[in-house]
Amino acid sequence: MILEKYINKLREDNKLTVVSRSISKNLEIAGVLSAIEPKPVLFENLSDSDFRVAGNLFCTKSQIADYFGIRTEDIIPTLTKAIENRSVPEEVTEATCQEVVHDGVDLSQLPILVHNEIDGGPYISSGVVVAADPDYGQNLDFHRAMQIGENRMVARVVQGRDFHRFLEKNGEVDVAFCIGNAPEVLIAAATSVETGINELEIANALQPIKVVRAKTVDLLIPAECEFVLEGRVILDEKHDEGPFIDLTETVDVVRQEPVFEVKKITHRKNAIWQGLLPGHAEHKILMGMPREPTVYKKVKDLGIDVIDVNITPGGSSWLHVAVKIRKKYEDDGLKAIEAAFAGHHSAKHVWIYDEDIDIYDRQSRYDREWAFATRFQADVDLLIKDKEPGSSLDPSAESGTKLTTKCGFDCTKPLETEGKSYERAKFPSVDLKKFLGE
Ligand SMILES: Cc1cc2nc3c(=O)[nH]c(=O)nc-3n(C[C@H](O)[C@H](O)[C@H](O)COP(=O)(O)O)c2cc1C
């Protein structure tokens, strides 16, 4: 879907904050987005760019569920189905993302945001990168990129990502950085699936999309994105990248990363730039949510009756996993911990809960901590793993090797309760209107 259609729908439903006063791409937009998160915002009048900017569009699971017209509890099955039943998108020859084709490249015309005073420069943070390899075909990944000149950027490419593999194999790789995407493309790009799977086919299974051939590189790109920056990333041409805020809201170190040479800019008429605050809710949702189906599947594959998985925001939507199961055997909890780690290698701590626990902690009863306090015994319910590689984003992991100590907490109650009470006491349910009025 074209992002503006969705933005117009938000406007009709009174869910959009519109800023029509003059505002700068330099720090001011990020400041507003941060202050009013998770409210979606459209900035109509930039003092330093002719384009509009939108942000906070998909900060919560319910915003994403609303977009797809499903319930939040249907997100995991919907994603699982799309990953398993991929389908090829329709290829078109004319596309909205190519309505305007620039002759030269001048990145300063674009509303590339400066998010924070410590940032090394203006950053693209919502860019979905389409790349290809002769053996594996096309791939989608997210890569932030810092502007370092009129037509040059430096991209952050984490080792082990498919795109990193393509770069190591080929030295230089043609790319299209696509900015301004709807959730089907954003979520598909954030999934970690086998190398060789074209995530555009996952996007198409989530919601039918169209693809078009890019103008100067041999890649099929999402036809309805807002902006496309075509060019190539060169492994051996390195530049300082950072500082920049990462997912854990801490400042990431400056590294030598590959340069992205921009050769062509295309966009939709009246295109809207997609802002995405690093370390904030939208970044977190897009990182964590696509891992929930893989955790779910690994737990289910062990024969455990898994009900739900939440990669929790307090753990930066990356390091902490809460799993809800219907326990049948005494060792289900400990087994589920191992399975959860197998489904998300970057996780550091895993908690397993019974079906009566709200793993989203939506009410003020602190369900997760309550279960931890009343159902967990460290001598039998704690699983500590030997040091192994975890997340590069965890500042407490060993730098360079990512070695970390992972552990899991089985917060399920025993099947044999031996007369003890593990349930929350229930209070009488009354008709409040009878006593308090309307
Ligand atoms: C908003 C967002 C920003 C991201 N930024 C980067 C980045 O700058 N560099 C990077 O290597 N991965 C980044 N990632 C993570 C990867 O894109 C993601 O884990 C990847 O799609 C895994 O796919 P792969 O297993 O196909 O490589 C980001 C993810 C999200 C959701």
Describe the structure.
With 438 residues, the chain is α+β, with helices and mostly antiparallel strands. Among the domains are: 88-268, Pnp Oxidase, Chain A, CATH 2.30.110.10; 291-410, UbiD C-terminal domain-like. 25% of the residues lie in helices and 26% in strands. It contains 13 helices and 25 strands. Strands 5, 6, 7, 8, 9, 10, 11, 14 and 17 form a nine-stranded antiparallel beta sheet that branches. A five-stranded mixed beta sheet has the order 19-20-21-25-22, sandwiched between helices. A four-stranded mixed beta sheet has the order 1-2-3-18, with helices on one face. Strand 20, helix 10 (332-343) and strand 21 form a beta-alpha-beta unit. Helix 6 (183-190) crosses helix 7 (199-206) and helix 9 (292-301) crosses helix 10 (332-343). It starts with a helix and ends with a helix. Flavin mononucleotide binds at residues 139, 141-144, 156-158, 161-162, 189-190, 192, 276, 283, 286-287.
Structure summarized in a few sentences:
25% of the residues lie in helices and 26% in strands.
Topology (SSEs and partners):
Blueprint lengths: L2 H10 L4 E3 L8 H9 L4 E3 L8 E4 L5 H8 L6 H10 L5 E3 L7 E2 L21 E2 L3 E6 L3 E6 L2 E3 L4 E4 L6 H9 L1 E8 L3 H8 L8 H8 L3 E4 L6 E3 L4 E15 L2 E2 L5 E2 L2 E13 L4 E3 L6 H8 L3 H10 L3 E7 L8 E7 L5 H12 L5 E5 L13 H9 L2 H4 E3 L3 E2 L13 E2 L2 E4 L21 H5 L2
Parallel strand pairs: 1-2, 3-18, 4-12, 20-21, 21-25
Antiparallel strand pairs: 2-3, 5-17, 6-9, 7-8, 7-11, 9-10, 10-17, 11-14, 12-13, 14-17, 15-16, 19-20, 22-25, 23-24
The structure holds flavin mononucleotide.
